Design the sequence.
């Protein structure tokens, strides 16, 4: 029986494991990917202060520290169910079952699709898949592509592909349909980008930030958005063009593109065909919570945090005894925040086992402060209003504890 | 636009979902069971957010705190022999 099993070897899971091992706990880390590091592995961007964030280097530091501490990490194993048992948890995997007293779920985030007719053709992929192919597997995704969906993540990954020498025609919106909704609405896309623009290093986002201060300016900026797009590192970003269809017989051959109004309506007679051999779709991220759900954890819906989130507090505890969560499963934020949250979770788990160690009490508080600090200084933010979302969650956790004692 | 695929594993289109909603005038859960949208090989990891969005669009049901269309184990595809092996271990 392990003291703790950690599902997910991303920045959150690994930094939690390191803390647990520092306090000499019996730890097992499980991840279904053949390499440790999670989504960190694909990341490469320049911070506003000019420094580069290189996910492979960051991963190396974490895995080296973990291995110095003799951390047991099993890769290429999928967890398909977790059960609460009397004295802990039973973790079901495709390589047998493992039992532990405590469980940390650090499974990160997954991508939402923004489907456009033709999105099932070979050659269409999510923007995250393009990131993994480019930066992790070092495979060229195609000869010439287009990115459908304009958000912080797709802008960052488009830049990564550009650095790797992949040819991108442009970034455009998906055409409006019942599923693409806000992703297809130029004003809403502009709104969202501009609220986080002060953080962004890129010229495009900074442009958004400048014009975006006043509501009226934002409206004008969408209305008078240049016909040929704004350029980011030489690549056009079109807030006023949308793809209605991806074409091809056995493989992507082209996309059909229209000009759109500031509300995302297609303009008749502007139809154009753009030849590409791959398409990246970017519909945003959502917390991957399936295991918390089957473990019976209560949930709270929070738009600010990115969707349905397992109820938890700042110490990364859920209302279920012994069940902890950390990283993007608690809300979509940058890798630095996930790593800082993992540290809190690890210390909080150690504290629960070792009980009454003053040093640990202090360390948990310090680590929680560090999360707040990292959040405030984050250079990448996926959702505006993250702070509000976090505060609300704290209340929801307190409420859940109250009802529990009342029962 | 209605011929757009929503659930890739089970090949369910937006049209299938809309028609089912109209014909049976039913809840999101019933639409899911009737069309199998989100119940395929990937366990809904690819389409869950869009299935939720479509369901909200056609039924008008707003997202509450509970995860719509409950998550069921196994959350990853596993072979029957794996599941069976487990039963023996217990
Ligand atoms: C496509 C994509 C691109 C991103 N790009 C950036 C970026 O450029 N910059 C940035 O700051 N943030 C980015 N993010 C956000 C990213 O989620 C965080 O940066 C950070 O990696 C979150 O850390 P984590 O430890 O919570 O989760 P992750 O790093 O996602 O790690 C979770 C791990 O859990 C494993 N796992 C999940 N389910 C199971 C299971 N059932 N069984 C076994 N293992 C499982 C996964 O294989 C994964 O390795 C991106 C996210 C995604 C999805």
Sequence:
């Amino acid at each position: 029986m392990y003291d703790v099993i950690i599902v997910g070897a991303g920045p959150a899971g690994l930094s939690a494991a390191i803390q647990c091992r520092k306090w000499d706990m019996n730890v097992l880390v499980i991840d279904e990917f053949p390499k440790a590091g999670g989504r960190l592995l694909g990341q490469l961007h320049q911070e506003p202060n000019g420094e580069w964030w290189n996910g492979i280097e960051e991963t190396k530091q974490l895995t080296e520290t973990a291995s110095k501490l003799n951390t047991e990490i099993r890769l290429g194993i999928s967890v398909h169910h977790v059960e609460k048992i009397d004295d802990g948890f039973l973790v079901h995997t495709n390589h047998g079952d493992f039992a532990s007293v405590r469980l940390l779920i650090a499974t990160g985030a997954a991508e939402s699709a923004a489907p456009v007719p033709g999105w099932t053709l070979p050659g269409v992929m999510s923007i995250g898949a393009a990131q993994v192919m480019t930066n992790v597997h070092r495979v060229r995704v195609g000869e010439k592509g287009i990115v459908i969906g304009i958000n912080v993540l797709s802008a960052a990954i488009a830049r990564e592909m550009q650095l790797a020498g992949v040819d991108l025609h442009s970034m455009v919106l998906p055409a409006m349909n019942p599923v693409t909704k806000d992703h297809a609405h130029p004003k809403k896309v502009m709104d969202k980008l501009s609220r986080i623009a002060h953080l962004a290093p890129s010229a495009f986002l900074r442009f958004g930030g400048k014009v975006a201060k006043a509501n009226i300016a934002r409206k004008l900026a969408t209305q008078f958005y240049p016909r040929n797009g704004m350029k980011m590192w030489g690549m056009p970003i079109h807030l006023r063009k949308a793809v209605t269809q991806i074409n091809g017989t056995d493989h992507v051959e082209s996309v059909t593109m229209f000009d759109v109004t500031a509300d995302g309506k297609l303009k008749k007679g502007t139809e154009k065909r753009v030849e590409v051999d791959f398409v990246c779709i970017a519909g945003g991220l959502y917390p991957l919570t399936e295991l918390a759900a089957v473990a019976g954890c209560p949930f709270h819906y929070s738009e600010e945090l990115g969707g349905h989130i397992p109820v938890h507090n700042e110490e990364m505890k859920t209302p279920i005894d012994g069940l902890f969560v950390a990283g993007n499963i608690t809300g979509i934020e940058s890798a630095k925040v996930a790593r800082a949250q993992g540290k809190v979770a690890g210390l909080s788990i150690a504290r629960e086992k070792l009980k009454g160690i003053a040093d640990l009490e202090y360390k948990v508080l310090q680590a929680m402060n560090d999360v707040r600090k990292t959040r405030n200084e984050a250079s990448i933010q996926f959702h505006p209003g993250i702070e509000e979302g976090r505060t609300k969650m704290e209340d929801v956790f307190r409420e859940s504890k109250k009802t529990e004692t009342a029962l | 636009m209605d011929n757009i695929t929503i659930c890739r594993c089970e090949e369910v289109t937006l049209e299938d979902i809309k028609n089912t909603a109209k014909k049976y005038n039913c809840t999101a859960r019933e639409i899911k069971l009737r069309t199998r949208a989100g119940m395929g090989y990937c366990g809904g990891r690819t389409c869950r957010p869009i299935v939720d969005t479509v369901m909200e669009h056609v039924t008008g049901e707003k997202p509450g705190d509970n995860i719509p269309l409950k998550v069921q184990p196994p959350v990853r595809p596993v072979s029957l022999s794996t599941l069976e092996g487990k039963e023996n271990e217990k």
Notes: The radius of gyration of chain B is 15 Å. Residues 5-84 of chain B form one domain. Chain B has one domain: 5-84.
